[in-house]
Amino acid sequence: xxxPDFHRDPPLILIVDDEKTLRLVLRRAMEQxxxxxxxxxxxxxxLAFCTEQLPDxxxxxxxxxxxxxxxxxxxxxxxxxQKCPPxxxxxxxxxxxxxxxxxxxxxxxYITKPIHWAVLRQRVxxxxxxxxxxxxxxxxxxxxxxxxAKLEEMNQELxxxxxxxxxxxxxxxxxxxxxxxQEWKRLAREQAPLSLILCDIDFFKAYNDTYxxxxxxxxxxxVADILRKAAKRPADVVARYGGEEFxxxxxxxxxxxxxxxxxxxxxxxxxxxxxxxxxxxxxxVTLSCGVAGVIPPPKTTPDRLxxxxxxxxxxxxxxxxDRVVGNLVEV
Length: 331
Known about the structure:
Elements: E1 12-16, H1 20-32, E2 36-40, H2 43-52, E3 57-61, H3 69-80, E4 87-91, H4 96-105, E5 109-112, H5 117-162, H6 173-190, E6 194-201, H7 204-211, H8 213-230, E7 237-242, E8 245-251, H9 255-272, E9 287-294, H10 303-318, E10 324-328
Parallel strand pairs: 1-2, 1-3, 3-4, 4-5, 9-10
Antiparallel strand pairs: 6-8, 6-9, 7-8
């Protein structure tokens, strides 16, 4: 940590005293040290000055009319908190009660009258240095806090990108695997249903051959959008399973409920009427869906659920495509 350069950037000292003569003497003494100096005559003026501009240190007389130094110091602490500059209380009272009262009000240090000028200069210099060190420390802490927040934000964005399919902007296979494992364990504990929908775009190779890969990519995006809108709950996960295959994880959903979601997806795709002259079942792009549901048994894996959904999808294709077939997993 570098040392402060008070000569290049002189600190501002605020003198608060109702005695004009003492203010003048204090001003001269501080200016001889190279400091910038402002002065006010009472506590109210001190608070008003600090509201406009915070000095680097306040030399505050304890005994003043209207508002004494103890009250002024307490209000400074209340108003400015950690930003309050150090307060050096100047008091003619040299007893333990006055000293305790000064520190209770928030004074950083005190000095008694008659003022010992060498002591005053040393204490001002020490308080300014300490104040600068603390300000630098708070600044560095704030910088580290901001940097940490930015790094956390970047890490979250990186994690999001790692888990995202670049084309469709839905979850990728890696994210699907993680989400399924997580939901399987949770619902095994709760003994609640978990369902899976596997979707495959019918005759997608023919679509690519007919309209080109760019149109194929656009078709995949539209299907992903329909799936995303159909899986409305926060825990639902829509992912690209591979190629033209998609998958939907539906926690706390029975096989019957998942079948309804799958039919809704198929219906909404039909309503978009994406022309597909190369399809063997329709003039438009269609989906075949395999659905499986189970209450996960403890200490098992979701492999059986995936296999049953895959088998149901295969059955949907064999039976003529553009349909939903469901399998209830027997355990």
